[in-house]
Every structure is written in structure tokens, then in C-alpha cells.
Amino acid sequence: MFIGHWAPALAAAATSRKAPPLALLFVGAQLIDWAFFGLLLLGWEHMRFSPGISVMNPMDLYDMPYTHSLLGAALFAGAIWALRALVVRDPVGGLIGGAVVLSHWFLDLLVHVPDLTLVGSPPKLGLGLWNHPWIEMPLELGITFGALWLYVRACRPAMGRVVVLAGVLLALQGINWFGPVEPEVTAGTSITAFFAYGLATLAAWWMGKSAAKPA
Fold it and tell me: Whole domain around residue 161: which residue ranges?
């Protein structure tokens, strides 16, 4: 799952006036992966490229005990709730943001081959939709652009900005699905991921600036 992780962010912003700003929700939706690629740089978590490990994704995510365990995801979500509740005095918004963060693990559970954990150690979990592109591809596009449609309907952002965000998301997903496979993991692997997440978040922030709160 890549751009599909932003579907809960768009849906939350479309359905609750108490939701944090869309750009913050975009960061929250991918917070677990922001952290993973940071820990990858530090050597605290690990991956390798192994073409064929699944039909759609060559990443062998063999060591992610902190970011991609259910316990780790829950701790990230709890931290977001606490930060929002204590610093901004917005416990409801923190709860919404925390739920968006936690959604990441459950969406990954659908598509990953078994590499997720409950508490950082085996058993490893994953339903493996990356091995079934005819299911995963329409699912990812459907939830993402379905949520974007909900957001547009509820918040009425400028359509030109909606088109820009949609184009950015489609381009990033196309590169993810059909782009070249790196021969090995380098610092550039994390930098590329940060750039992609940052670009999508910037486009969401720009679109959100033209939007109203949902009714």
C-alpha cells in the first residue's frame, strides 16, 4: 500500500470538522513509513531489494520491529493523540489523528506478504495482496480516489488544486508500480521516500488551503 494510506486522511478531513488540518493528517497517515525510512538510515531497521518476493513489490521488509508492529503503530498513534491533546488542547482532533496513524498498519496488513508483527517478533503477518495485482491495484486506486471524492464533495476545494493533488498521487503510484527496481538499499532509498511523502503532503496542504470545513 502506498497512496492508499492517504485515504483515511482524506476521509477524516471530509467527515469531521474537528479533524486536524489535511497536511497534518497526510503526515500522520504515512508517519510509520517516515519513521521506518529514518530508522533504515540509522541502521535500526532493515530491508533489501529482492525481486520476486512478491509480484508487485520487490522490497524484502525483513526487519521492522519498531515501526511495523501493531504495538509500535499503536504507540505512534498514542503519541500523536497525546501531543495534540496536551499541546493544542484538542483531544478529539488527537483521537482522529491517532486513528489515521493506526490505519497504516491495518492497510499494510492487507497487501504485505508476511513481514508485519504484533509486538516486534514472530509470527509475521500479511494477507499478501501484492501477489494479486488485479485485486490490489483497483483497491488502492478505489479507496484513494473515493476518499478524495468525499473530500471534494464535503470541503469544496479549488478544482485546479484537486487536479494537482490527483496528478501527484497518480504519478507517485505509477512510479511505485512500474518504475525501475534499485539494485541495493542506500541512503538514496530513504531520501527518495521522504521526497515522495513530502511532495504529496505539500500538494495536500495546497489543496487544503482552498477548502472549507465539512458541513
Answer: 3-208
